[in-house]
Amino acid sequence: MKASQWIGSLVLIGAVAGAGMGLAAWKKADIKKAADQAAMMPEPMEAVIVKPAREIEHRRTTTAVGTVLALRSVTLQNELAGTVVRVDLTPGKIVEEGAELVALDVSVEEAELKAQEAQAALADA
Questions:
Q1: Rounded to the nearest 10 degrees, how much is the dihedral formed by the CA atoms of 11, 13, 17, 20?
Q2: Computed from CA positions of residues 26, 28, 31, 37, in that sequence, does the dihedral angle turn out positive or negative?
Q3: Which pLDDT belongs to residue 1?
Q4: Phi/psi class of residue 82: alpha, beta or left (left: φ > 0; alpha: ψ in -120 to 50)?
Q5: Disulfide: which of 10, 12, 63, 103 matches 86 by Cβ 3.0-4.6 Å?
Q6: Distance of alpha carbon 86 from its chain centroid, rounded?
Q7: In 3D, which of 93, 53, 100, 55 has the Cα closest to residue 78?
Q8: Is 90 helix (H, G, I), strand (E, B) or coil?
Q9: Beta bridge partners of residue 84, listed in sequence order
Q10: Cα–Cα distance between 108 and 82 in angstroms, integer?
Q11: Residue 97 in contact with residue 83, Cβ under 8 Å?
């Protein structure tokens, strides 16, 4: 590059840098001016309604909607298929171990048992 090209490039870079610094100084002065004006503004007024204090009854309870989960729970399922004929469950009731909670219809099984007993009696005779 020739010396004149270097000088032209430096002049251009200097002009751009000078313009940038000038814009930055102008913006900084503008922001300071706005801040000074805002500091001189009076505090805005607020409309307030005044009422005398009165005594009321306060309850220390409240009503809420939510879900309660038990710390301990039991899931019941039957091991055999069948029709439920009786349910001895009461929500919240404490159940003793071995208590019968649900009864299934066993009439078909009882009939099959009687038939097998009759066949066994015939085989013995």
A1: 110
A2: negative
A3: 67
A4: left
A5: 103
A6: 40
A7: 100
A8: coil
A9: 104
A10: 10
A11: no
71 alpha-carbon distance from chain centroid: 20
- Separation between Cα atoms, residue 31 and residue 45, nearest integer Å: 26
Which residues lie below 8 Å from residue 102, measured CB to CB, with a gap of 6+? 76, 78, 84, 86, 87, 88, 89
The angle formed by the CA atoms of residues 80, 85 and 90, to the nearest 5 degrees, is 100
Q: Find, among 116, 84, 122, 78, the residue nearest to 103 by Cα.
A: 84
Encode 54-67: b = buried (16+ Cβ within 10 Å), e = exposed.
eeeeeeeeeeeeee
Inter-CA distances, 65 with 46, 62, 70, Å: 38, 10, 16
Share of the chain above pLDDT 70, in %: 99
- Is 0.90 topped by the overall pTM? no
Q: Which residue, 116, 112, 109, is CA-closest to 82?
A: 109
Structure confidence at residue 14 (pLDDT) = 94
